[in-house]
Amino acid sequence: MFDLDRWHEIFITISRNKLRSFLTAFGVFWGIFMLIVLIGGGNGLGNLISGQVEGITTNSCYIWNGRTSEAYKGFRKGRWWTVSNRDIEIIKAKVKGIEEISPLVLPWTPAQDNAVRGEKKGTFSVQGTYPNFNKVYTHKMKFGRYLNDIDLQEHRKVCVIGSRVYEALFNRGEDPSGKDIRVDGVYYKVIGVGDGNEDMSFNGDPRETISIPFTVMQQLYNYGENVDMFAIMAKPNFAVSELQEQIETILKANHDIAPYDKQAINSFNVEARFQQIGSLLFGVNILAWIVGFGTLFAGIIGVSNIMMVTVRERTQEIGIRRALGAKPSSIMTQIMSESFIITAIAGFLGISFAVLILQMVDLGLDVSGSGATVFQISFITSVVAAFIIIILGTLAGLGPAFRAMKIKPIEALSEE
Amino acid sequence: MPTIIKLENINKTYYNGSPLHVLKGIDLEIHEGEFVSIMGASGSGKSTLLNILGILDNYDTGEYYLNNVLIKNLSETRAAYFRNKLIGFVFQSFNLISFKNALENVALPLYYQKTGRKTRNKIALEYLDRLGLKEWAYHMPNELSGGQKQRVAIARALISKPQIILADEPTGALDSKTSVEVLDLLKKVNETGMTMIIVTHESGIANQTNKIIRLKDGIIESIDDNSEHNFSSFGFQNIK
Ligand SMILES: Nc1ncnc2c1ncn2[C@@H]1O[C@H](COP(=O)(O)OP(=O)(O)OP(=O)(O)O)[C@@H](O)[C@H]1O
Ligand SMILES: [Mg+2]
Predict the structure, then answer these.
(1) Do A88 and A30 reside in the same domain of the chain?
(2) Are residues A44 and A161 in the same domain?
(3) What does the buried/exposed string (b/e) look like for A206-221 if buried means 16 or more CB atoms within 10 Å of the residue's CB?
(4) A340 & A263 share domain
(5) How many domains does chain A have?
């Protein structure tokens, strides 16, 4: 029942000590504000990171050669070795649980202005890949397609270029498909262009990369049978790290590397790294909740304390009310309502302010105008927060209200 | 006139530190419409007795009938109901709520009767008008003189149309001229038929009442009829 009279009574008492009410309310305001901003921050961090890594298949790993760190079978330590096509075939045949294995050649540093088209030129890294690399790392295309099996079988001189390559070699809006570009002295036909929104990739920035068929590159760049690096992707239910171990055993046997050599083979396990990021984010979120709730709790305790002081100060007033016929329950609801009103108003302001701040951050981040929510909390979260505030506000008033209820009119009136 | 208050062998002991037996078997009967004063030395138990009559305090043994209802072991809620409906209090220290103006103070008992705000403010204004305080209705207590405050308190005690007014030294904080005014007011209220019990030290005040009860060390020493208002001829001027 909405009892206007009761609320009037409550507002009179709250506005009686404005500064105190304000300070009390501020504790709650700050608590819920911090809680929501921290939760939003934790979620936003997660969204930002997962936005960066969307195209990466997480159950994958990259493996490449290194230098031996142990002498073995008459070889000195510090020896370079190289992965070869044969290794790939053997691994493919022997290791169960590999969904895809995709060898890569990628010379580390490209020559100055290695990519040319007419007057236009630029320096871009070149990599030779298999079509299945598109499964390990999803290339988002703006035009055309990624490399396919026929490109490799027929040793076609075709290429897929990143968006920056397109910008450097083509006029804005120009149709690149079927056009030739010269890369390190050889002409390639452009069959696809990346859309420029690619996520970070382990092997360089895809926007500044020119991909050509693996077989073509191995031949033209005098790689022979050599492979710079290969990516594997595990079948569902297979752990990448287990496959990785089996692969390393095979590689060590093939290349006379000591089984106990820890440095001869380099690898990057995307899955493990993702688990790390995942648990880091989890930790950040937990921390956000703990700190946020701590602050909120301190605010609520503040309300409770202030209400306690208020009740003590108002002992005489409460005694008068009781002498005039106020029931204990009406005194109790009065105190509870006061604490409730203070927390509710401060709490809702805190929620609104936090949501506003998060919205502004999102608007600031949203350069492309997609209206995506990164930091903003969900509607459900804010409803839950509002509920928490209501419950905590009521609880905060409970102790003081009971104390007020216990006040005997006679004791209160004799207190001068 | 029917009996409104009946006390039978009321005993009250305070247990703060060493037990203090304050009321030692009080028997008393007060009829509707009576105008009674209670006198006695300081510490004789006058306020204690009045608080028991007003259900602000409870007693240990004996029986207290108010309007033929036994007032014993009442729940706080029920006690609140009786205080609100049957009893009006006037205190020496006025006990007005400092952050409410005169009108709101007077209207407060009606708030606890769930009377709407408009109605109760209208009634409160009528009562203030009757006590000559209409212009002061929207003043805060600290803007009023002692006599004005006490008149506001009397208006507050009257507004719920109680059956009894209990006043604990209502003139104790007032000068003699204002005391007379306040007492005249209480007298007029009594003339409308309301039972009135006043605790006082002043024989001049007691002499205005129709019955004088003298307490001494927790027992009733005497109950004297004073309808002739010739209290001084009893030779009690030296009380205290
Ligand atoms: N709440 C209490 N706890 C303990 N003792 C009390 C309490 N209230 C009163 N007393 C004691 O009981 C005795 C009677 O007190 P009471 O107030 O009834 O006296 P009184 O007749 O009204 O005195 P006065 O004329 O000074 O107002 C006093 O000795 C007082 O100290
Ligand atoms: Mg007294």
Answers:
(1) no
(2) no
(3) bbbbbbbbbbbbbebb
(4) no
(5) 2
Task: Kindly report the nearest CA distance between residue A309 and chain B, in angstroms.
Answer: 17
Residue B161 contacts A where some CB pair is shorter than 8 Å: no
Domains, chain B, in order of start with CATH, read: 3-229 (3.40.50.300)
A304 forms beta bridges with none
Pocket test for ligand 1, best of B26, B44, B49 (most atoms within 8 A of CB): B44
* Minimum Cα–Cα distance from B97: chain A residue: A317
Give SS3 for A176.
Answer: coil
CB contact under 8 A, A328 and B77: yes
Within 184-213 of B, beta carbons closer than 8 Å to A belong to none
pLDDT greater than 50 at residue A260: yes
Determine the pLDDT at residue B173: 86
Which ligand has the shortest distance to the CA of B57?
A: 1
Measured in Å, residue B48 CA sits from the centre of ligand 1 at: 6
Characterize A43-72 residue by residue with b for buried, 16 or more Cβ atoms within 10 angstroms of its Cβ, and e for exposed: bbbbbeeeeebebbbbbbbbbbbbebebeb
Low-confidence ranges of chain B (pLDDT < 70): 231-240
Q: What is the pLDDT of residue A415?
A: 60
Chain B residues within 8 A of A9 when measuring between CB atoms: 111
Query: What pairs with residue A180 in β-bridges?
Result: A189
**Residue B33 region by backbone torsions, left for phi larger than 0, else alpha for psi between -120 and 50, else beta:** left
Task: Give Cα separations from A304 to A391, B51, B237 (angstroms).
Answer: 13, 33, 55
| A260 and A400 housed in the same domain | no
Interchain proximity B95–A316, CB inside 8 Å: yes
Contact yes or no for B76 and A330 at CB 8 A: no
Spatial separation of the C-alpha atoms in residues A152 and A219, rounded to whole Å: 12
pLDDT tens profile A109-123: 888 999 999 999 999
**ipTM for this prediction:** 0.91
B43 in contact with A, Cβ within 8 Å: no
Nearest CA to ligand 1 atom 31: B43
Domain with A111, as residue range(s), is 60-269
A198 plus A294 within the same structural domain: no
pLDDT at residue A183 in the model: 93
Asked if residue A303 has pLDDT above 90, the reply is no
Q: Does A325 contact B112 at a Cβ distance shorter than 8 Å? A: yes
Q: Which residue has the higher pLDDT, B122 or A299?
A: B122
The pair of structure tokens assigned to B184 is 């005249």
What confidence tens digit (pLDDT) does each residue in A286-296 have?
888 898 889 88
Same domain, A247 and A163: yes
Residue A43 pLDDT class (50, 70, 90 cuts): confident
Q: State yes or no: pLDDT of A237 exceeds 50.
A: yes
Among A215, A248, A269, residue at a domain's last position = A269
| CB burial string A243-261: b at 16+ within 10 A, e below | bbeebbebbbeebebbeeb
Which ligand is nearest to the Cα of residue B39, counting in written order? Answer: 1
Residue A108 sits in the same domain as residue A244? yes
Pocket mutation for ligand 1, best pick of B12, B37, B38, B48 (most atoms within 8 Å of C-beta):
B48
Yes or no, beta carbons of A321 and B108 under 8 Å apart: yes
pLDDT at A408: 86
Q: Is B16 in the pocket of ligand 1 (CB under 6 A)?
A: yes
* Distant-in-sequence, close-in-space partners of A309: CB < 8 Å, separation ≥ 6: none
Residues A205 and A282 in one domain: no
Q: Which of A269, A285, A314 is the last residue of a domain?
A: A269
B31 CA: distance to closest CA in chain A (Å): 23
